[in-house]
Design a protein that fits this description.
By secondary structure, the protein is an alpha/beta fold. The chain has helices at about 10-25, 25-30, 55-65, 85-90, 110-120, 130-145, 165-170, 185-195, 200-210, 220, 225-235, 255-265, 325-350; strands at about 1-10, 35-45, 45-50, 80, 95-100, 125, 150, 175-180, 250, 270-280, 280-295, 305-310, 315-325. The protein binds NADPH dihydro-nicotinamide-adenine-dinucleotide phosphate and the ligand N[C@@H](CC=O)C(=O)O.
Length: about 350
């Protein structure tokens, strides 16, 4: 069967997934039996399109990448324009909603409502938006279950690097007592560039141009994005209730060239580290810039790479390193969530 997709948001990550689905369509069909079509896109400024028979991948990407909007997409019989996000979720014939709108770090909205509307309409959601997972994990997990649909959010932590799926599947049976890692690509990239002599402002601009930063980069530089991610890890991987407010949080905006130089003289490097620790059934978590010694494995994680160490009772420390942000890297996280849904559907049908 062909998977019918509705995109809410069509920025860096949305286009990243669309490019992968188009460029790998044959190999996905051959290797996985996976076929998809985009039936709808609803984006604030770029516009909204819906066609129940599917939109043309190439024409969509050409319109948005050449003109910045979907306005030049060819008009065809049956094409509907102008639906907002909730209309698109409720009225389209999609079976899966791809939620790739902005992460709102105060309320998680409107993405939480997007998930509610999708689940209540019997649609799966795959998303990279961290708000709903960090702020409404219990409610939305229960709602998806009640409606018999799937909720995938691998890309909310470390883009396509399997920071959620790897521990849940392959470390199952372990007690994970501590998680420590570099969870934000923008700040890790900025710290590398500042260590090389770039100014804070220039380093941030570069990270934005490379598609790593949040729409409001305050979330990156003040540690709010990493705070959401450690909350997601605590809830989903450690199975511990943790709220955003319980996580002490500082970012990197206070780091001056002098502080960076001083760390270098001490044989250390600044890194934005997120930690969650479980002791006697109580979880504590924080996000803060730390001067790590050069022999700490996290010291050599550079650019937009991220790394995470899971402290397990049966295996000891297990470290995973890989991309933390980026267009194709995060587009891939949505693909693996889609393939997981497709494989489960095949298993049920066979
Ligand atoms: N970039 C990355 O490397 C990663 C990003 N993420 C997360 O993925 C999500 C998407 O990121 P990214 O693609 O980089 O962000 P972009 O800002 O490039 O794209 C977001 C798109 O969503 C649109 N949008 C925002 N709110 C709505 C809404 N309510 N309805 C319809 N469209 C909306 C925006 O519209 P417009 O701008 O046209 O007004 C924009 O085109 C974010 O939540 C981010 O936190 C997660 C992991 C990595
Ligand atoms: N802005 C985020 C994007 C991925 O979550 C980051 O830089 O890590």
């Amino acid at each position: 069967m062909t998977h019918k997709l509705a995109f809410i948001g069509f920025g860096v990550v949305g286009q990243g997934l669309a490019e992968i689905l188009y460029s790998k369509r044959q190999s996905l069909k051959d290797a996985e039996g996976f076929e998809s079509k985009i039936v709808a896109i609803s984006d604030f400024k770029k516009g909204s399109l819906y066609h129940p028979d599917g939109l043309d991948f190439e024409a969509l990407l050409e319109a948005v990448q050449d003109g910045g909007t979907l306005d030049s997409y060819p008009k065809a019989d049956g094409l509907i324009t102008g639906w907002d996000s909730l209309e698109t979720i409720r009225k389209s014939n999609a079976d899966t909603v791809i939620e790739v709108s902005y992460t709102d770090v105060s309320t998680g909205q409107p993405a939480i409502d997007h998930c509610r509307a999708a689940f209540e309409s019997g649609k799966n959601v795959v998303m990279t938006n961290k708000g709903p997972v960090a702020l409404a994990y219990q409610e939305l997990s229960a709602l998806a279950k009640k409606h018999g649909v799937s909720w995938g959010f691998e890309g909310t932590v470390m883009s396509g690097t399997p920071a959620l799926r790897m521990p849940k599947l392959t470390l199952a049976g372990n007690d994970i007592t501590e998680i420590r890692g570099i969870l934000n690509g923008t700040t890790n990239f900025m710290l590398m560039r500042m260590d090389e002599g770039a100014s804070y402002e220039a380093a941030l601009k570069e990270a934005q141009a490379l598609g790593y930063a949040e729409a409001d980069p305050t979330s990156d530089v003040e540690g709010l994005d990493a705070r959401y991610k450690i909350v997601i890890l605590a809830q989903h991987v450690m199975g511990m209730p943790l709220t955003v407010e319980q996580v002490e949080c500082t970012g990197i905006s206070q780091l001056t060239p002098e502080l960076i130089e001083q760390a270098r003289m001490e044989g250390r490097r600044w890194k934005l580290i997120a930690t969650a620790k479980k002791e006697n059934g109580i979880i504590t978590a924080k996000v803060a810039a730390e001067k790590v010694p050069l022999d700490d494995p996290l010291a050599s994680v550079s650019g937009a790479l991220n790394a995470i160490t899971y402290q397990t009772d049966l295996l000891g420390p297990v470290t995973l390193s890989g991309a933390g942000a980026g267009k194709a890297e995060t587009g891939f996280s949505l693909l693996i969530d889609l393939l997981t849904i497709a494989r489960a559907r095949e298993t049920v049908q066979s």
